[in-house]
Write a structure and sequence with these properties.
CATH superfamily: YbaK/aminoacyl-tRNA synthetase-associated domain
CATH class: Alpha Beta
Strand order of the largest sheet: 4-2-3-5-8
Number of strands: 8
Order of helices and strands: HEHEEHEHEEEHE
Length: about 190
């Protein structure tokens, strides 16, 4: 594992290196939030294949090859509908399935279902396959799987298909105001 170290925020690296801040082509609400909050992060861009059936698997394949990271370090953002009618976000490792029951319990809701794609896109301001847990149009209650705390760095969507952000899990949890709980199926 690579350990994140403090960054000289006055002279951020651009493009490559351990700390990168967004350039114009990789600017999203998520990267703008990280920059505004002076959080060290790296943007990883790859050519998204529009024929890909699984956005998460595509990210895992590319990031494992390019960075040598474990698939369990790469997290997907799932929007769920709680029984009270509100939407929420569950962030789990790509290889895992979400336990809707565990996510609902962690967020204080009775039950949960996967949210309607259009409703998820309208609430977050992102398109499906590129929904980030950060910088959403409407801040949704968020739960992050406890396994994120096992890593010095995690990757998640930067808010666009083919764009991932790498950051410390503590920053992801803090900036999304997330609760942390075992929400992967089988925990």
């Amino acid at each position: 594992m690579t350990r994140l170290l403090p960054c000289d925020l006055h002279e951020p690296h651009r493009g490559h290196g351990p700390y990168s801040f967004p350039m114009a082509s990789t600017s999203t609400p998520a990267t703008k939030l990280l920059t505004r909050e002076k959080v060290p992060f790296v943007v990883h861009e790859y050519a998204h294949d529009p024929r890909s059936a699984s956005y998460g698997s595509e990210a895992v394949d590319v990031m494992r090859e390019r960075l040598g990271v474990d698939a369990a370090q790469i997290f997907k953002t799932l929007v769920i509908a709680l029984s009270d009618g509100s939407l929420a976000v569950a962030v789990v490792p790509v290889p895992e399935n979400l336990s809707l029951k565990a996510a609902a319990a962690a967020l204080g809701g009775g039950k949960a279902t996967m949210a309607d794609r259009g409703a998820a896109e309208r609430a977050t301001g992102y398109v499906s396959g590129g929904i980030s847990p950060l910088g959403q149009r409407k801040r949704l209650r968020t739960v992050v799987d406890v396994s994120a705390e096992n890593w010095d760095r995690v990757l998640c969507s930067a808010g666009r298909r083919g764009l991932e952000i790498e950051l410390a899990p503590t920053d992801l949890i803090r900036l999304s105001s997330a609760v942390v709980a075992p929400i992967a199926a089988g925990h």
